[in-house]
Amino acid sequence: MAPVRSWPEDVRARYRAAGYWTDETFAAFIEDRTSRFAGNLAVAGQDAAGTPQRWSYAELGERARAAAVRLRGAGVEPGDRVVVALPNITEYLEVVLGLFRLGALPVFALPTHRELELTQFCVLADAAALVVAVGADRVDHRAVYDTVSAQVADRGVEPPVLIDVGTWASEAADTAEGDPGVRRDDEKGRGDEAVLGVEVVPLPDISAEETAFLQLSGGTTGVAKLIPRTAADYLYSVRASAEICGLDASTRGLIVLPAAHNFPMSSPGILGVLHTGGAVVLARDPSPRTAFRLIAEHGVTDVALVPPLAQAWISAAQRRRPDLSTLRTVQVGGARLADSVAPAVREVLGARLQQVFGMAEGLVNYTRADDPDELVFTTQGRPISPDDEIRIVDAADRDVPEGAEGSLLTRGPYTIRGYYGSPQADADSFTADGYYRTGDLVRRLPSGHLIVTGRDSDLINRGGEKVSTEELEGFALTHPAVLDAVAVGVPDAYLGERVVLVARTEPDAERPDLVGHLRAAGLATYKVPDEIVFLDELPATHVGKNSRRELRRLLATTLAPQAVPQPAAPSKEHR
Ligand code: OOB
Fold first, then answer.
1. For the chain, does the N or the C end have fewer beta carbons within 10 angstroms?
2. Residues 122-149 pLDDT 10s
3. Any idea where the domains of the chain sit in the sequence?
4. Mean pLDDT value of segment 470-493
5. Dist. CA 450–CA 471, nearest whole Å
6. 258 CB under 6 A from ligand 1?
7. What CATH superfamily is the domain 11-19+230-245+276-457?
8. With contact defined as beta carbons under 8 Å apart, do 539 and 558 qualify?
9. Does the CB atom of residue 334 touch ligand 1 within 6 A?
10. How far is CA 422 from CA 4, 261, 276, 495, in A?
11. Are the beta carbons of 408 and 358 closer than 8 angstroms?
């Protein structure tokens, strides 16, 4: 395993003494919760073939043990890294819990990652296996795997083996006939001792403070980095999140974002629900139609959304008037929710809004249940832990005056001190005394709540004038015809960067006069976009956030003066 810069021993001792860090490993967590809540419903969803599944905690535990045996049969050893790239299907939980049970380390890729990213992850993690679900979607996973294998080999690393969970359900059905005690592992053939449900792999010999899995750095720009998380730090954030968010055995948590992303996994997400004995409801796709059906069918109480999805739900709910009466909390995070959209969560979806500002590297902030609306609508919450250390600094790393905008630095009991085997990334992203440089610009209120005002790099520098993309987007979103808006800086020979606002409207809607709208809002002239581009759809990152990088690329090719307009070029409107 690659070296990792970790917490100093005195800090570890402090986190243990405070009760944040316990000895519980993921394997122990799974064993404990699946027996403690044995009779409760744990999971409802579809398997790779689209067959509905409902598993109790007892069955989930049994499946985790069986998956551990199966994974070991496929050549995965304790300590191995395994890249998991699965959609929100029930096999995802079998695989992840099975890897933890075996003591192997999941590397949480997303189902939309392809050759380029998967090769990067396999090389960075020196992965023993790549897990996909052939047949679960229209992707030719075998062809992707062949390319990844070849590219990984080209880079001098042993290629991963392919593990296809697309066949797991049918193999189990072929050999089990309903009785888990006689299910057999086909790879080993009938007759030997590898009988699933009978053979059990030993509990892994790892401590809770060792790296247990690798998350991907979620920034919408930059090169891939792997984030090493331990059971001690991660399960602390899960327990504390579940408590802050009020989860209990009655929780029905709908997972519409990619299950492997940090937000739906642990804030409080799947792990928070399993911690408290509630049920995880997996949505195969994030459309409002599917989600609304699942909410009514399963009595969903909690869901986590990114802002574009929250807006899609709000506009769909206004049209369709679905039964969302069981919904208690709609969490919105991952990107800045416009203040102007926030009230609609209660008005239209009938649920409490909770803003979540987190990062896979650690720090997570929540608005709290007893916060006044003003804070819930306009801030991104405050940190989970009293021991989350926050610094807000200027370009020279000096603390800014209280309440002023600055770059957010943080360290704490569940924020990493270094990436997985990337000394260069560590030097760039951490201070000498261990603070993580989030890259986010924030302001802090006296209550401790943070307002995300932008990214260090999301300021458009228009001839020396700084334009906050978030601010501009917020104003654009106050126009009723604008469904979504992203402001980006596009290279400009005169200004350095000029401001382009990309707005999404209904496909056949008349183009709104956004320049007039923004001027009327009293926005400084330098912030009024130099160009406005209307698109029916905005390019998205793998987790569904608007992708600024992809937009910049699109704009550079379709809007650059030297570029020949493409047939599918977006419509332009110059001011
Ligand atoms: C979550 O994690 P990542 O790793 O995909 O992205 C982290 C970055 C943050 O540094 C920030 O730039 C942005 O995403 N972000 C937000 C935000 N939540 C995340 N920016 C503004 N407002 C928010 N509410 O995105 C993530 C991880 C755990 C929980 C929630 C989100």
1. C
2. 999 999 999 999 999 988 999 999 999 9
3. 11-19+230-245+276-457, 26-206, 460-565
4. 88
5. 16
6. no
7. ANL, N-terminal domain (3.40.50.12780)
8. no
9. yes
10. 8, 21, 35, 36
11. no
Average pLDDT, the chain: 89
Task: Say if ligand 1 is within 6 A of residue 546 CB.
Answer: no
CATH topology of domain 460-565: GMP Synthetase; Chain A, domain 3 (3.30.300)
Question: Which residue(s) pair with 305 in the sheet?
Answer: 332
Question: Is residue 434 within 6 Å of ligand 1 at its C-beta?
Answer: no
Distances (CA, A) of 404 to 223, 437, 489: 30, 17, 24
Cα–Cα distance, 461 to 467 (Å, whole number): 6
Choose one of 359, 419, 455 to mutate for the ligand 1 pocket test, by most ligand atoms within 8 angstroms of C-beta. Answer: 359
Percentage of residues of the chain with pLDDT beyond 70: 91
Q: Answer whether residue 500 shows pLDDT above 50.
A: yes
Predicted local distance difference test score (pLDDT) of residue 44: 98
Residue 269 burial (C-beta neighbours within 10 Å; 0-12, 13-18, 19+): buried
> What is the CATH architecture assignment of 26-206?
3-Layer(aba) Sandwich (3.40)
- 364 CA → ligand 1 middle, Å: 8
Q: What's the pTM?
A: 0.84
